[in-house]
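Design a sequence for this backbone.
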């Protein structure tokens, strides 16, 4: 379910920030409008087009599965679910940090 996916990723992102954060800060990090992010988090609407791609790049291509869609080939990522939790969490964190660094420098991941 989209709202569960979004809220889980918000909590993970918030944990990485080291303290409670407002949804507006999460929306800025996603480079999206806060109202739209709230709608996704509340299950009131589903992302399409550029917003879907932004979410996939920031939060992972799993969002396509959550929405019942096929992942575009250029966004497929390795399955980390079989790895030990500590290694998987470190890799996921490294992926987020890398995406953040690219985003901060306005470098496209496409």
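Sequence:
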């Amino acid at each position: 379910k989209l709202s569960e996916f979004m809220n889980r990723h918000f909590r993970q992102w918030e944990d990485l920030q080291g303290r409670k954060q407002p949804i507006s800060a999460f929306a800025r990090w996603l480079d999206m409008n806060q109202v739209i992010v709230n709608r996704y988090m509340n299950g009131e609407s589903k992302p399409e087009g550029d917003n879907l791609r932004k979410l996939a790049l920031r939060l992972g291509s799993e969002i396509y599965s959550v929405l019942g869609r096929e992942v575009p080939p250029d966004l497929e990522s390795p399955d980390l679910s079989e790895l030990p939790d500590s290694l998987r969490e470190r890799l996921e964190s490294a992926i987020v940090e890398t995406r953040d660094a690219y985003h901060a420098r306005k470098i496209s991941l496409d």
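The chain has a mean pLDDT of 87.
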